[in-house]
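Q: Hi! First time doing this. I have a protein sequence and I read that you can turn it into a structure. Is that right? Here it is:
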Amino acid sequence: MHLNKVFGLLLLTSVACESMAQNKYQWKQASAGGYTYKYVTNDPIQSRFYTLKNGLSVILTVNHKEPRIVYRMAVRTGSNNDPKDHTGLAHYLEHLLFKGTDKYGTLDWSKEKPYIDKIYALYEQYGATTDPAKRKEIYKTIDSISGVASKFAIANEYDKLMSNLGSQKTNAHTWVEETVYEEDIPANAIDKFLSIQAERFRSPVFRLFHTELEAVYEEKNRMLDNDGAKVQEAMFSGLFPTHNYGQQSTIGTVEHLKNPSLVAIRNYYNKYYVPNNMGIILSGDFDPDVIIKKVEQAFAYMQSKPVQEYKTAPEKPITTPIVKEVFGPSAENMRICFRTPAASAHDAMVLDLASSILSNGKAGLLDLNLNKQQKLQGSQAGLQQYKDYGMFLMVGTPKQGQKLEDVKDLLMAQLELLRKGEFDESMIKAIVANTKLALLQSLDNSTSSAQQLMDAFIKNRGQQWDKDVSYIDDMARVTKAELVAAVNKYLGENSYVLIYKRKGEDKNIAKVEKPAITPIETNAGKSSDYVKKMEAITVSDIQPLWLDYDKDIALSKTGIADVLHVQNKTNDLFSLYYQFDMGTWNTKQLSLAAQYLQFLSTDKYSAEQISKMFYNIACNFSISTSAELTTVTVSGLQENFEKAVGLFEEILANCKPDEGALTALKSRLMKARANAKTDKQSIMQGMVSYARYGAKNPFNSSLTDAEISQLKADDLVNILHSLMKYKHRIMYYGPLTDAAFKTNIAKLHTLPASFTEYPAKVTYTPAVQSNTQLLFTNYDMVQSEIAWVRNDVGYDANKEAVVNVFNNYFGGGMGSVVFQTIRESKALAYSTYASYNTPAKKENPFYMMAYVGCQADKMNEAIKGMNELLTDLPASEQRFELARTGFKKDLETQRITKEGIIASYLSAQQKGWKGDFRKELYAALASLKLQDIQNMHKEKISGKSYTYCVVASDKKIKLDDLKAIGEVKQLSLEELFGY
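A: Yes, that's right. Below is the predicted 3D structure, encoded as structure tokens:
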């Protein structure tokens, strides 16, 4: 199901009433506060659509759940509109819009501008030159002048401005037909925020370009190491041989990245960043009559101009299957891809529904006929929808010994059932109910609302919001015959692109080479006059709101079990949890038993029937296991509480051993374990665990191959049958009162007379890093990844405040020391961070971890750069104050609600806190000084021994370079994974 598109009626009404839907959602016009706006009747989030005099679209939706506002500035342009000879340009521009204007980001614009102009001209000369020696000489000049220009620039002043406001989630993204800028701010900062955003788009300056260019090079190289990204690119190019969806990658070609043009970027900005092509979406705590006036005042300077949108390139029908192969080191998989109609087409919604008939996670054709029967490693289907076209995907991964071609045949067989209409028509009603349930859960989420409205603006300027709101009602009216007709029209037997992702060497990788870059000046401790002015503007306070566990959560008992209860007074949804303080460290087979349950039947019901029954009542159940915790979850509509909980209790108590299902599960588990060895993220995770705990560690202490082989069905079923005999707490968030809930649960959940003791737990002692050591694992990749790991002393609640501020200051965002130095100044990496990590339990220690992902030929420089920061901490009162203020405003605007209250209480228990410890953290911030941060760095970070974890190709780096740092231990995959 393409949930981004769906935003229909969220109250679970009878489908019998759906015939009235066409009259239910109508565009209306209203006026308030001196402004006229449009709205759609019965819109559950009551969105208002304004168009200002200059053509700027403003879309507002109010949510008073917390004192924050989610912001999206959406521009209706992306890589579709990149010039043919400058692909990647829209994405470059997105990066550059964080660099400031002639007012901020500069110490003296009059002195900086001449150098910026020279850099513009040099890049034009560079792009027009083909002789390698001359190009090298020109770039040397660019590097030199950029260094001089940087003396007048202040890197990341935008991030400083946002940190001062208390903004969270500062980000942006570029895609095929959109560029979107994102923030999440305290509601009291809206005036300053709008002023800054208006300035941001008034006259952006493309400064510090060659270091940001290198960051994009790094991003490109990371994609070359990402097999999933390569599959995505192959899919787009196959489905769209004419349209720019498939002909222009968002990141750009290697050749175009090597020849950027600031002139072309400026022309692009002037052409597409105009108010009649832009939309501001605000979702959160505000008065819309007040906010619309503020938005117009801030952005009235913008002047509209004609915009020529990307002209849709019509694609010819695919009449013969197009087969593509992608090679790389990660696990094999395949996908079948069909081209589907535009977002505005009625059939797009019908095909969205069809994708859920195939795959909904529980009762779809793929779910029941393939996944439940374990005929392959895994499969799913879905629709990716864009403005001009969509893509219908079926994705499959092979199990042990299975060919990709066999997976393709299995998927095609299920699609054929869909084409023939061989499915239960009642599935449509169940899909509608489950979609309503999912959206009801996100109704009061400002981020979700902003995303939905942003998507609507990009696709059709929000003009079809009435259809978006009625989407689920319209879906409920789709007949089986209509669905089958659409499937046969668009998902024909030969009208697809078939992509096989195979293991093997990719011989087509063309890495973007590292240019010679001299570190630039970031002027981190300095501020422009504009920033000083903004910081001087005071805003009204937001009072923090702490939890009172004596009032906000009911603690009682039912029988011998503790009950934690929080009443849901918002809607009719419930979540029930049984939680055990035991996990795989107690019983290694527990995780496998939890997975096994989904394939088991009882005397009354088959595994397939159980899946259908839960899906039909729009409820879910799951068992999740971690090292020290197991949680059973049952959730859904309160009206089906007794049915859902009763059915789960029946399944758990009466599931029957099935050796065939276990044999298949074992095979799939072995395949999953083999796949993990091909995944560089899993490899790094294993290395960090090795660094923290030694050769025998939590990561590699799972079941051995022999233990898996010897497992019997009875072993796992006995674990499931005996689960509720162990001590567990019962947690409930739902409409029932505490008393009513305990009455209900006592009837449904049988407790023993006394709990059985947990099996003995294996514990792991954190390693002591007494000397520098390097762990290395060889992996076929363009980049290198390095992590620094060090365990520290035990947990101390009194250090929480300084640790949080230290992380903000040192390595936790774009304004941090690590980001500013490694990426902004030295252009050594696209991704880098560092943090002093706080344990979840008071018995565990703090630990330090730093990370750099960079080109292999930059590894030595990156290690040197991070080591310098770990040794000496650059001091800045300004940066400290931003870090302190940011954390303070996070605490002031944070509102813990719903199940979060229970999670907060349990977290406090694990850490030994009395009450809501955020109150103590907040109080501690007032007396915190830069010296405290410096002392922490000196005592906990500087001059310490670290274990380095390095994942790279031994063909791209020299092991001798690592040996020069310390002892190198090369780890095999067997040592890392334990199998």
